[in-house]
Write a structure and sequence with these properties.
Elements (H helix, E strand, L loop, with lengths): L4 E4 L9 H9 L5 E7 L11 H10 L3 E7 L7 H6 L4 E5 L6 H10 L3 E6 L17 E5 L14 H14 L5 E5 L7 H7 L3 E4 L1 H4 L4 H12 L2
Parallel strand pairs: 1-8, 2-3, 3-4, 4-5, 5-6, 6-7, 7-8
This protein binds D-xylitol-5-phosphate (DX5) and zinc ion.
């Protein structure tokens, strides 16, 4: 079985010590950088934008997984490719022509992800699953770090695993929001491949150790 991945979310980092936190991830057992971009319209919060991502990409030595919580993401696909994104995830709820958007992301040389809000059924992805490299299952309402996860996400991950396997697709399942050492193993057992963890990592006493522990829990 392919190894399971941990993606610390930069949203919970110390922005006055960003380079330190990036180096911490570079030197840790983490697999990806998870970057949350919020526009204050699709979600009721604004995180950070292009200049910050550009500087993160300068220092990061691991895959950059960008989660766009913005309306009409098509406007910025090329920009995010140029900034160094490796995976670009758009929200199902923010795309009128999702198929076209995914093709545009791939045309720019990135992997294409689709995030679904807690209220969106995984069934909505059935006819497009073959075109998706990664499904980001939101286990909280997007917009803020530090929330507790919604229990129903377990069922959604399970259903999605079944759908992906029965379609013979190799789409990755990512879980985003409220991931801790208490639920990480359960998400993996339900079929997740990638776990995003923000507060649990950065608000811990020793983030490097916390990442190591998460990797051990999910099986290196
Ligand atoms: C929420 C973001 C998440 C968030 C996760 O809108 O998409 O990636 O940073 O943070 P925690 O792990 O603190 O829930
Ligand atoms: Zn995210």
């Amino acid at each position: 079985m392919a190894s399971k991945l941990i993606a610390p979310s930069i949203l919970a980092a110390d922005f006055a010590n960003l380079q330190r936190d990036i180096e911490m991830i570079n030197n840790s057992d983490a697999d990806w950088f998870h970057i949350d971009i919020m526009d204050g319209v699709f979600v009721p919060n604004i995180s950070f934008g292009m200049p910050v991502l550009r500087d993160i990409a300068k220092h990061a030595t691991k895959t950059i997984d960008v989660h766009l919580m913005i309306i009409d993401p098509d406007r910025y696909i090329k920009t995010f490719a140029d900034l160094g994104s490796n995976i670009l995830t758009v929200h199902y709820e923010a795309c009128t022509h999702l198929h076209r958007t995914l093709q545009a992301i791939k045309d720019e040389g990135m992997k294409a992800g689709v995030a679904i809000n807690p209220h969106t059924s995984v069934n909505a992805l059935e006819d497009i699953i073959h075109d998706i490299d990664l499904v980001c299952v939101m286990s909280v309402n997007p917009g803020f770090g530090g929330q507790s996860f919604i229990e129903n996400t377990y069922k959604k991950v399970e259903k999605l695993r079944e759908m992906i396997d029965s379609n013979g697709s190799n789409t990755l399942i990512e879980v985003d929001g409220g991931v801790t050492d208490k639920n990480a193993k359960i998400f993996i057992d339900k079929g997740a491949d990638v776990l995003v963890a923000g507060s649990h990592v950065f608000k811990s006493e020793n983030p490097t150790k916390t990442i190591k522990r998460l990797k051990e829990i999910v099986g290196m």
